[in-house]
Amino acid sequence: MSAKPPQSDAINPRGFAELWLDAQHALGGFVCVHVQDQALADDIVQEVARQATANFDQYDQSRPFIAWLIGIARQRIAESYRERGRRPVVFSSDILDSITDAYADLQPEVDDRLDALRDCMDQLNNRHRRVIELRYARQLSQDEIGERVGSNGRAVNAMLFRIRTALRECVSKQMEDTR
Amino acid sequence: MKLDKETAAMLETYFAGDPTPEIIEAMQAWLRRDKANPRLLAEYGLIDRLIAHEQKNEDASAIFATLLEAEEAAEPIAFPAPGTTHEQAKPKRDDAITFKQAGSALSYLAKQTLRSRAGWMTGIAAVLVLAGLLAFVFAGGNDASTPQAPLAKNDTPPTTPFKATPARVATLTATHNAKWAPAERASTRGPNLKTGDTLAAGQRLNLTQGLAEITTRRGAVVVLEAPCAVALMGDGHALRLHTGKLVGICETESSKGFVVRTTQMNITDLGTRFGVDASEPGRVEVHVFAGEVDLQQADAVAGDNAWSQRLFTGQAARLVEEKSTPSLIDARMDRFTLNDDFLAELPGTGFGVEPGQTDPNWQIVAYQGQPLDQPWQPIAINLAYGVDNIPNHPQRTQWLNWHQTKRTADLTESYVFQTRIQLPESIDPATARLVIDCSTDNQLAAIHVNGERSPVSSAYGGFESERFEITEGLIPGENTIGFEVNNLWPEDADDNFENGVGLRVGWRLHGRTKQTD
Known about the structure:
Helix content of chain A: over 70%
Radius of gyration of chain B: 28 Å
Distance between the termini of chain B: 50 Å
Strand content of chain A: under 5%
Radius of gyration of chain A: 18 Å
Oligomer: heterodimer
CATH topology of the largest domain in chain A: Rna Polymerase Sigma Factor, Chain: A
């Protein structure tokens, strides 16, 4: 990484910091819709942060910050597919715009949703907690998780989706209850 | 919104990864069908991200550890008065957060982090991300000649010192016949601990009977063997062992760097399995089953002459007094009770010898199918080929070579490289499994296990690594393992051509401990 001179006139780091804190999870959510590999998703989010920091002077403050970040992320995701020689998962532009709008709507709720998620995760049974921990903390593959919990990769995938669905519904219900 | 079965099946397939064009087409149609659907998909992505955030706490360990250890030491972290420069604001503790490096954005973030419960994890992760990112934006921030901007006026310091809510940093993932001593704090569950319970930063665990397995947020697995008392530190990526024995298993990238602290030394994992025994007062032993660990003199007694030492696979160290340095001893895996998946990395070819030296643990015992009266001693060499598969590491594995080859009529020679390994008595031999990553010059023909020859299918010119598994024929105690390597001559070689034969082996032993009850 090459060093750049300070650009105090062009960059308002405190403004960036505030905006990033508010938007980072929504950005991560967008990336996770397109990239199922958690480590790769982390790399993409980090790369977006790097690019956004370096080009913050180009951010048009009349637009939602999350939309600007997602614009960078869309390019980075496409590049990551090319780098890995994989078939890109590309939705059409109008659909990507509607997903971007959805994240802009969700962003103000993220902290509340995180609180709700903690409560909802406490309600999972031990087996489901174990699967979540193996997938997200230890980042094991579906087959590896299957070996640990006495199942197979396909069943683990189905279980992970059921758990995510249950957590999404639980979080949404808690959000509705508090409104 | 509840999903119908068809939509659920489509989303499940999509999130499994590598969706087909048909699935993408179906997804697009679904996303266009209802304005609520993009929102639904966005919620799935967000849930995915938030679960990951909750589970792995990314790289916040350093700041977490600093904050929580400061709290543990009753040293409140106060923010500097308005107008203070970053250099002036730099905390006096050597290991504290360096605001000077982080810049004002980080200062702001750190403050927000400490103020906001919801942002406490989020913010710290962001601080670390931005610390790296902003370093180049604020290049010169470490330069004493660069003026340090004062903190903004509205960076008003909090009126009360920071007090953290204990974070949930680990999970009790398995127990075997476990009993716990009563909790020392009312906030912890003490004797009522059960599998699946989350564990808080600072929580002390006193296991009086049986075994217990803890998994930290970052994936380090710790098996406690009673009697054992530990306390989780920082973000759970460090643990203080007050007394007893434990085994640390850190096999994922995120779990590397896990630290076990004792009164005399700190043990830092570098991607490994290791055991720590602090059962006897004034004595600590560290045994490395696989990988590497760093030992350092404990903070409390470390001075300018503090020692540090790295241990590799098969090595162990014992420290008997606070002021002494550790002494190397034989690693004893059988002294530790592991979880049900025993694993030990075995010393590979060329282990512990320098290139050019003979390896005393390996011999060439047969040539052209005939036993040799006087075995030949192969020599460790540093070859470039195949290194992308098995790192050529003198403390793990490197190539062994035999140069004194003879040209035969059919241009083919065979050699048997032989060594001995130990299967611990604690392991059930029926579950033992030897996983071998092997490179040969030119071709592996067979593996001999305690005299039984098993032909293998190996690629000619096999400079690249191939994996083989042995699941039969292993016995408790000493086992003799031989690798039969074919060496082939180029058709156009002249009489002066030197055609060495080579073998490189890196291997691991898996198995389950015998059931004792």
